[in-house]
Batch of 2 targets.
Target 1
Amino acid sequence: MHAKQPGMVLKVKAKPGMGDELFKACHELHFNGDPDGPVEWVLARSDEDPDVMWAFEFYRDDASFDRHYSSPALQEGQLDEGHQRIADLVADGSEEWGVRTPVHIVSCS
């Protein structure tokens, strides 16, 4: 990880009792072979609600971040099998991604 590295912070709430499945699906999705996908990532569980996941994803550079988030499938709302699996686990009545905020690292260990 390095200063100015682009990333995305996401908060996702699973359907009741489906937190473990959400974490498993998100973990597996990080190994899908996308050359523009995150190169560093952390999945964290809320201490207050086991069905809430915080994801911190960091990308190689701004260009790979832009390519990843501007893919035609994402722009047209078409989800691949892995993303559809996650969408199916998201709590009913909530937005697919409760929080989705692009970030850049200022400093890191």
Note: The longest helix spans residues 19-29.
Target 2
Amino acid sequence: MLIVGVAAALVVAGCSSKSTDGGSSDGTTSDSSSSAMSITPRVLLDAQGSEVPAADVTDAVNPAGSGNATCKGVSLAMAGALTGPNAALGQNILYGAKLALDKHNTANPNCQVEMRQFDTEGDPQKATQVAPNIVGDGSIVGLLGPAFSGETKATGSIFNQAGLPFLTASATNPTLTENGWTTFFRGLGNDNSQGSVVAKYLTGTVGAGKVCVVQDDTDYGVGLAKVVTAELGAAADPSCAASVKSGQKDFAATVSQIKAAEPDAIWYSGYYAEAAPFVTQLREGGVTATFSSGDGSNDPEFVKQAGSAAQDAILTCPCIPAPPALAAEYQDLNGQAPGVYSVEGYDLTTIMLAAIDSGVTDRAGMLEFVKAYDGQGVGKRYQWNPQGELSNALIQIYEVN
């Protein structure tokens, strides 16, 4: 079945994560108002910040293929955070991949492809521990992941040396494609494109004359904050620029610093596990400035944990929300709606399945297939330059309401 065209009612959130409900003593909340809020797509922009129409994806490549594929002894792998504080982001990717696999394996009884799961918890050190297990399995001809920039940086040379194509649905640090890896492909725009668009949107559409940029200590957070700060120029107020740590729950000092600066907007570069308590404490501290953050926070867990404090937050992502037909299939299979990176997980898995269906049986064949690939996915076209970057980068603006 071909994916229907993207309608106005694109779906990315309103989805429920599989973690438990309830407030906590760490500054996160889960009030009843959060159940009525969702992360809603607002506008799709190109790398120059210009609005572009959603793609008509009636010709999107179908993971089911012809239904006549034959294969034996080949598998795929997924590496990313499947447990831990940011597990929802990795699960979104995995569940997108599962949908593509389900369609493929149902349609192709003589080509049953397994995707082996490797949980990194989003931790670079743990990722380096599982990477040898991935490359040591000769049946694995392609890897979906790693999910986070830090773990990709830590393991990329391992995968590259093993000749294993690794396609990330979510790692956006720009320097990843500067390492000379020849088997790495990024399935979305990097932070250079996102950061530039963010700055233009905050100073233009939002009208922010003063922005406080706050970053966490991850490769993703540091890299994205650097780009946003540079692109904001004079609008980035150094008096309230701040750094926080992964796992931090008490943001009192940073809240006081921001409150004193009286900014128009706050940009947070990091993940939802810290973004949720941070925005909660900002609102409790009387800071009313527009809160904005990137793809690391763009997950229903941010809304769930922050509760009413998430209201009107602006979230961005170089990822594409799922069109209604795909969202319904995803919901039926996984028991929850698609989230950030779900579409990229689906599309990248589809590409690797298409390679297997074409007769690819090893890593070298997968690499050549992906290098030469040019095909329509859900919401974007996939074609890579020699460095592994997409030829076209799109940024979606979302709002919590």
Note: Residues 49 and 197 are 5 Å apart (CA to CA).
